Amino acid sequence: MNRTWNHSEPYAISYDDARFIGVMRDGYPIYGRKDADGSAPTLDSAGGHTGVTADSPTTPVYHYHVHEQTSTSSGTLGQKQWFITTGTYRGAPGGCTGCN
């Protein structure tokens, strides 16, 4: 499922680390920029991958990470920012009453 919005990395919660940020609408968790071991993960087109996390240290699970994107808008062309989502979910998002 595609969405037209993105949200930037919440620096008050996570900044260049592996901290838990929250859960996406499809039920998968999202973490900071790094994996639990401090390495930078290789992400799929939805912005996630399967691996161990601080919350699942022995069993690999699918999860998202914030990831860097480059602006293609004319006013901010070329600027980079860390975002929570690519606008695509790996799983099917659950319903949300009152969401826009």
Tell me about this structure.
- The chain is an all-beta fold.
- It has strands at residues 20-23, 29-31, 48-53, 56-65, 67-70, 80-83.
- The strands form 2 sheets. It has a 4-stranded mixed beta sheet with strand order 1-2-4-3, with no helix packed on it. Strands 5-6 form a two-stranded antiparallel sheet.
- The two termini are 15 Å apart.
Regions with pLDDT < 50 over 5+ consecutive residues?
1-5
Which strand order does the major sheet show? 1-2-4-3
Strand content: 25-35%
Tally of DSSP helical segments: 0
Shape: globular
Structural class: mainly beta
Brief summary:
The chain has 100 residues and is mainly beta. The protein is built from no helices and 6 strands.
Task: Write out key terms for the chains shown.
single chain, 100 residues, mainly beta, 0% helix, disordered N terminus
Topology summary:
Layout: E1 20-23, E2 29-31, E3 48-53, E4 56-65, E5 67-70, E6 80-83
Parallel strand pairs: 2-4
Antiparallel strand pairs: 1-2, 3-4, 5-6
